[in-house]
Amino acid sequence: MCANVFGALKSLFGKPFDGGKRMDHGSQQQQPQPQQQQQHPAMMRLYEIQREVYSLGPQVRTFSGLKNEREYRRLERELTRLLLEVDQVDTEGRADLQGARKTAAQEVEGLLRYLEENATHPSRLAIEELSREAQQLVEQGVVEPQRAGGTVDISDELVDAVQELILRLTQVKTGGRVPLRKARYRALTRLCAVQDVIEGRTRQQTLPLPLSEDTHAAVQRINQVMVQVSGVRSQLVALLMGLSGRDSCAHLSRVLTELLVELDALDVSGNAAVRNYRKQVVEEINGLLKHLDLEGEGDDTRRYDLAQNDSIRQIEAVRGRVCQLRGEVLRHCGVGDLFRPKPELQSLLTHLDQVDTARNPCIREARRRAVLEVQAVITFLDLREALICRQPCPDEPQQHKAVWMVLGSLSDLQAQVLCFEGKRADKSYILLEELLTKQLLALDAVDPQGDEMTKMARKQAVKFAQNILSYLDLKTDEWEY
Questions:
Q1: Partner of 238 for a Cys bridge, out of 95, 133, 136, 243, CB 3.0 to 4.6 A?
Q2: Which residue has the higher pLDDT, 348 or 280?
Q3: How confident is the model at residue 204 (pLDDT cuts 50, 70, 90)?
Q4: SS (H, E, C) the chain
């Protein structure tokens, strides 16, 4: 958008602007400077406004909040002011000045529109709704019992509910928009940190204190530190979920650091058991400290840009190779041959299994999808091979033959699904979905007549058809990391 304004002002400044580069929040693009010569006052004013727009652009493009936030109101106020100032520029009826003013107004309006679209985008609202669900869950299960002075017992239901929310957040589509990706990353980072903290609490609940106070003089103080750490854990969960108006990351970090210093000063020499106990408590504290750098997470980093992540790059390399192998398999099937790259496909599965996800749910989801892509090609090859090698007996039951006929049709449909590259609104997608559903109905119509082999074959065929439908759905759900 800035390039449009630069082009409009180019002739009047007598020097072309470098408008060929897109403005990006991470770039160091130099602001254009007018040639040092006498210019029309209106054009100079438009240039001054444009410089302000230039400085606000990156802030607008990376804002990931909602309309009720202070930063949104500030940006909206600044852009509205600039729009009014553009409107007040007197063009004296000159066409060149009118064109420049119009372009400048369009630039500001575009930023205002972009700001509002992202703050009110359905995906942004979905992220906020899931964040509120997580807040309510944590408040009821952790914060309220802790504030009441009772013992906070982390239930399996709470752990499962947090995991479910993480999965739902992972599935939120951002369309590649930086503000939405930042908002999703920020929410996921905090919820994953909460999951890690409460899972640590769950592990602690299953273990009694390893030593009695009679063992060593230092054990009593270590036990007291453990009680303090337990309280800080609940405070940290509340802070991560935005439920603490009193604590801050800096305050909790200071408390935990002081506990580490106190533990380090304890004299536990000569007693290996007490040293190991203290070591466990230190590890507990360090595990909490690593979550206290999230206060500015997503604002001063670009970790949400997973395209630059090494694990994602490995996954994408595997997907690229799978795409090549899939094309070769389908080409050979088209001429009646069977290309069998199963050993390489199995090695790709092994490689995906070794990819480090760093507990990042988006990377885990990307890996899961890549695994499904590999498995889809493997199951296609297995069925093709079974159909080629099939030698039916003369007395084979008709219902068994009917199942195999459906499997043959499913194999042909799976080949079409494997090479499908469209959207759910496409006619080809709707047709494939209808044909696969018809095959499920055909299997439902098969009467096994008590034959166990037919029952098993039909059950496997139904599962196979459902897997093809799921894979078709996965290919068109427009998910991105």
A1: 243
A2: 348
A3: low
A4: CHHHHHHHHHHHHCCCCCCCCCCCCCCCCCCCCCCCCCCCHHHHHHHHHHHHHHHHHHHHHHCCCCCCCHHHHHHHHHHHHHHHHHHCCCCCCCHHHHHHHHHHHHHHHHHHHHHHHHHCCHHHHHHHHHHHHHHHHHHHHHHHHHHCCCCCCCCHHHHHHHHHHHHHHHCCCCCCCHHHHHHHHHHHHHHHHHHHHHHHHHHHHCCCCCCCCCCCCCHHHHHHHHHHHHHHHHHHHHHHCCCCCCCCHHHHHHHHHHHHHHHHHCCCCCCHHHHHHHHHHHHHHHHHHCCCCCCCCCCCCCCCCHHHCHHHHHHHHHHHHHHHHHHHHHHHHHCCCCCCCHHHHHHHHHHHHCCCCCCCHHHHHHHHHHHHHHHHHHHHHHHHHHHHHCCCCCCCCHHHHHHHHHHHHHHHHHHHHHCCCCCCCCHHHHHHHHHHHHHHHHHHCCCCCCCHHHHHHHHHHHHHHHHHHHHHHHHCCCCCC
For residues 181-189, average pLDDT: 86
- Kindly report, residue by residue over 79-137, the tens digit of the pLDDT: 999 999 999 988 888 888 899 899 999 999 999 999 999 999 999 999 999 999 998 88
What is the model's pLDDT at position 307?
67
State phi, psi for 294 to the nearest 5 degrees: -95, 0
327 and 276 Cβ atoms separated by less than 8 Å:
no
- Spatial distance between the Cα atoms of 406 and 461, rounded to a whole number of angstroms: 8
Amino acid identity, position 391: Q
- How far, in Å, are 87, 176, 430, 446 from residue 320 at the CA level? 51, 20, 27, 40
Sign of CA dihedral 388, 394, 400, 401: positive
